[in-house]
Each structure stands twice: as C-alpha cells, then as structure tokens.
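$ ./design --mode recover --in tokens.txt
reading tokens...
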C-alpha cells in the first residue's frame, strides 16, 4: 500500500476541514474499503457517493473523540453493510462491461494476483459482518485495534475478540486452500 493510496494522516482537525478536502484525501481510500468490505464492483461508486453524503451530513457533528480516519472507516463499514443488505433485496441485472485499463504486469503475474484477490474476497465473504469489518480494518488497512473499536463503536475487548475469531477462520480457510490446491 503506497503513500498515494493513503489519506493524509495529519489533516487538520479544525473548522477549516471541508468536504472537498476530505473527498480529495479520502476518495481512493473509501473506494478501496468499499471493495474490501464486500460491496460488488458495480455498486462501489454508489457506495462511495453514499459515504461522502453521510460525511457531508455529519461533518459538523464530528467530536474528535477518535481520529478522523477511524470516523471515516466507521461510516464506510455501515454503508458497506447497507449495500450488502440491499443486494439481497434488489433484482436489477448489472453488467461489468467496462473496458479494462492497461496493466504493465505480465499475464502470469496478473493471474496470480487475481487468484490471490479472489481467494481473499471469497474467504472474507464467509465471515460475518462484524468479524469481516474488524479483520479488514486491522489486517488490511492497518488501523490500531483501538481505532477499529472506535470506528465500529464497540468495546475494545470486543474488537480484540472479533479479530482473534476472524484470524482463526481466515487461517483455517487458507490452510484448506493450500491443502486442496484451491479454495473450497
């Protein structure tokens, strides 16, 4: 994960912080989080827009009890959960016919990365929402457990417990994958 993908860690937490600044600093991050939290590719843009609408509506209510990053994570987690629930009740037919961008990697490298990403997404999809959110925020987005607890509005010990349980489930799924040569 490079510095280009990271939101500015030290954005000023004062009255001059506005939606345009937040959007510039967090748009790539929010997009990545939505994918990692299980929002389908055709729905990611809508989910990202919903995140920034919520930020706009609640920015004046941000109390600085947690980091701005953790606050945005919390919003992302809740929006992603709503998007996943909506997926089960909507019956629209979507198409992923957008052209692929030019990629400098070789086909073999691309296949290997795609296979690993598919395996990770498949494993993450087996976790319940609470464990998935904690695992993604801690292991993939590198938040501290305290920031995760703040983002998810849960007690610190609950975040630790969910992380431990999620790690066990992910490790077991990876072991099965390695033993069978494919994810089951």
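writing sequence...
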């Amino acid at each position: 994960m490079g510095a280009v993908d990271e939101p500015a860690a030290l954005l000023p937490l004062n009255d001059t912080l506005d939606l345009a600044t937040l959007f510039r600093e967090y748009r790539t991050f929010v997009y990545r989080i939505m994918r990692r939290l299980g929002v389908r590719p055709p729905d990611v843009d809508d989910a990202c827009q919903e995140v920034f609408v919520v930020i706009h509506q609640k920015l004046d209510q941000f109390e600085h009890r947690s980091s701005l990053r953790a606050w945005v994570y919390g919003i992302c987690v809740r929006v992603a959960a709503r998007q996943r629930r909506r997926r089960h009740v909507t019956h629209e037919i979507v198409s992923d016919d957008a052209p692929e961008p030019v990629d400098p990697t070789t086909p073999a490298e691309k296949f290997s990365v795609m296979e690993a990403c598919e395996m990770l997404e498949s494993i993450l999809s087996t976790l319940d929402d609470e464990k998935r959110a904690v695992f993604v925020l801690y292991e993939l987005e590198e938040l501290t457990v305290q920031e995760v607890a703040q983002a998810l509005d849960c007690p610190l010990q609950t975040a630790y417990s969910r992380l431990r349980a999620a790690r066990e489930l992910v490790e077991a799924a990876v072991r099965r994958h390695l033993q069978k040569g494919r994810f089951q």
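exit 0
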